[in-house]
């Protein structure tokens, strides 16, 4: 990011845009509230956020969700705060970039879902294999993504970062405080 580019500050809203490997737009989240930015990471919250799919369909997120992005890891984490506990959706994706328009990343199809009871599931393997052939991800990206799946599993097992109950409690509380201040 160019030095002149200002990082969004706490309480700002940004858009999030995911792309596919071929550069096509995949999905847009319109208003994500920034909770923290640093040189390498960004934490935000979506709550009843408008989402636009690549085919023009719209939907609104159902529950509050913390989002965690890092510039050195090939994944991002969504912690969905539900009545029955916290569910996680981990997108295998390129590290993000941030410009004046939005936070942007390339979605690489594979996802890890963690249910509130702790069960885990690797999702969209067939989609990953199909797009990998179609857009020629190549062995380097395949290796990077597999290594990052192992990192995600380690973080889950050790309740590291966004997989920590304390992380979710602290940042969700901060979101609630900022929401009350903006009313």
From TrEMBL:
It holds the Pfam family DUF402. Gene3D superfamilies: FomD-like (2.40.380.10). The keyword Magnesium applies. Keywords: Hydrolase, Magnesium, Metal-binding. Residues 22-160 form the DUF402 domain. NCBIfam families: PRK13662.1. This is UPF0374 protein. It comes from Lentilactobacillus fungorum.
């Amino acid at each position: 990011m160019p030095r002149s580019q200002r990082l969004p500050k706490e309480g700002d809203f940004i858009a999030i845009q995911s792309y596919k490997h071929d550069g096509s737009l995949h999905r847009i989240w319109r208003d994500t509230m920034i909770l923290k930015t640093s040189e390498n990471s960004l934490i935000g919250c979506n709550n009843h956020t408008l989402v636009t799919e690549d085919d023009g369909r719209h939907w609104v997120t159902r529950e509050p969700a913390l989002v965690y992005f890092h510039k050195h890891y090939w994944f991002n984490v969504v912690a969905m705060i539900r009545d029955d506990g916290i569910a996680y959706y981990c997108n295998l994706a390129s590290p993000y970039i941030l410009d004046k328009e939005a936070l942007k990343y390339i979605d690489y199809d594979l996802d890890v879902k963690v249910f509130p009871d702790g069960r885990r599931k690797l999702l969209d393997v067939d989609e990953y294999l199909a797009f990998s052939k179609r857009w020629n991800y190549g062995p380097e990206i395949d290796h990077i993504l597999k290594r990052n799946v192992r990192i995600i599993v380690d973080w889950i097992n050790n309740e590291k970062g966004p997989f920590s109950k304390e992380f979710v409690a602290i940042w969700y509380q901060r979101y609630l405080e900022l929401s009350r201040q903006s009313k």
